Amino acid sequence: MAVRQARERRNGDMDRGENAVPMIDVYAATGTFRNPHQLACDLARTLMTIEGVPDIPMFRQNTAGFIHEIDGPAISNVDGDSRYVRVQVLTNAGALDREKQLAVVSQFTDIVATAAGDPTLSRRTWVLLTEAVEGGWGLAGHAHTNAELVQEARAQLAELAADKTTGH
Hints:
With 168 residues, the chain is of the alpha/beta class.
């Protein structure tokens, strides 16, 4: 069902006003990931797919992952273990329904463990889902509401469609 809904949303169904331009922050000990840049790209693309936003520059260029490498001793649980990864996903309010929340946590956990080459890391990966308040999503110097983001996306979809018909 989530895949069907994602396809519908990518095809321009934005009436629900739930489009987001999310940010993903991953915190891990230095050296945990072989290719941090690829991990950031994979997480961003996965989130766009789960959210079902249109595959347009507005979303591709503003859905981003940030990999924060931290000295191992700066991370610890109560027992002193520092082999953990914390992933924080920030979206605008209402962007992820329950089905999408479950998909993000499951898929991000798998992606992180794969990127680290350590399947056991899935037991030590924490994924936190947070939402910016309505009007609290700053993009290009403006604090956007969900409705404004939808309006921007629709305008870009119309522009891209016009460019296709005129050959630009």
